[in-house]
Amino acid sequence: MENNFGETQSVSLESIPSMELTEKKNEKGEFFAGTFGKDPKNPEEIRVNEDSMLVREDLGLIAVFDGAGGHIGAAQASQFVKGSVERSFEKNAEFFELESNEARDDFEKRVSFEMEEIIREANRSFLLNSMRAGTEGSGTTGTMVKMVEYEGQKMLLVGHVGDSRAYLYREGHALEQMTLDHDFILNEIYPGEENVEKARELQWKLGNTLDARNFSAEEKEIFQDKKRHGVSNAFGLEADKLRVDIGLWDVKDGDEVLVFSDGITDNLTDQEIENWVKKSVRGKAVQGLMYDAYQKSKAQKSPERSGKPRKKDDMSAIRVKIGKIEQGSEEEKKAEKQEGGVSFRASSFDELYTILRDEKFTQPEKSTGEIIAHIMKLELKARQILERYDTKKEEGDLAFLTRKRDLRSLVVELLRKKVASE
Question: Which end of the chain has less Cβ packing within 10 Å, N or C?
């Protein structure tokens, strides 16, 4: 899958999918993202990842595009639209800046218009390209979040087509879905702008009720409809049929924005996602909730989870913590202590290796997903320490690379032992 992350890490083990991860930071915030589309344990399911993600911390821009599964050119569709959107934001970056003496209402209307124009231009380009390539009928969702600011007030500008989702989390508040799924509930059950809130309520109930026995007869009928997981709106529709939702949200430093493809939200409830965000430091939520969703997509059916049936799909997740947070902040130290994290006070590679080698993962109450996320977090910390050693020129290039290889081998072995013990 094409991405815009620069250098990424990949973890490929027999028991888990191959995941691409990234972490970036600047004055706008801390950006974490992960995606996978393969299942090594079931070779017949190996296929191209039809999700594409966009992370441009320099533009304050994140997005997820989910190619319409089963259609010819689904992966190419998500990649094409992603590229078109990215180029437009690069070219028109100044249009999202505040103009002199501009009233807030005028600013909001202008940036909302620019977002919609970028989306509609990407759709026009995609339609033309599909005709040339002979892939008419292909399509992709697209959920984009652009950071903008009006006189010190930070805002999230959200552009949305399809059923990928954007959420906002603020400490002390419930996770809030900023987008509306464009599905048959919105299109057929509750059509029309006057019924949007009814559609939102029904979507929420059908997506967040674990036990299907709690549905009414009417809700159960809708829940069982084969069209429920289909998408009614996507890039690839004719211009007059394409629905584009635009929204603006005031935010402050410390708030978090999350964007997912439906591979995540079809397998996890909002509460399960929120639990990961609340208890996780930095990138751990992305890793942990993706593995959690993956495990649930493979789980055996049970009455207790009949309202959230498993769904195998590509999975992509982006999490951004808004505002600059200094390394080693009190917030991070407190959260890491609560998570039982390891304190890395190693003065040499040998001491660091010993800390990792002796790390125990025997807590039976923790899921494999949590353990995996913790191990990967250890590896990231270790790499950061090794990079500091390298900049001090204390080791030659060959020795440094050899030690990084040894470190990865150790982390992989720890993970294999944990999985094998379950």
Answer: C
Instruction: In whole angstroms, give the CA distance from residue 327 to residue 308.
Output: 38
Half-sphere exposure for 116 (CA within 13 Å, toward CB): 14
Q: Are 244 and 120 in contact (CB under 8 A)?
A: yes
Q: How far apart are the first and last CA of the chain?
A: 32
Cβ count within 10 A of residue 357 = 10
Sequence letter at residue 2: E
Minimal CA–CA distance to 375: which of 337, 325, 418?
Answer: 418
Long-range contacts from 292-301, C-beta under 8 angstroms, 24+ separation: 292/268, 292/367, 292/369, 293/263, 293/264, 293/267, 293/268, 294/16, 294/17, 294/36, 294/267, 294/369, 295/367, 295/368, 295/369, 296/267, 296/268, 297/263, 297/267
Residue 35 buriedness (CB in 10 A; 0-12 / 13-18 / 19+): buried
The 10 Å CB-count burial string (b at 16+, else e) for 382-399 is beebbeebbeeeeeeeee
Q: Cα(255)–Cα(166) distance, rounded to whole angstroms?
A: 13
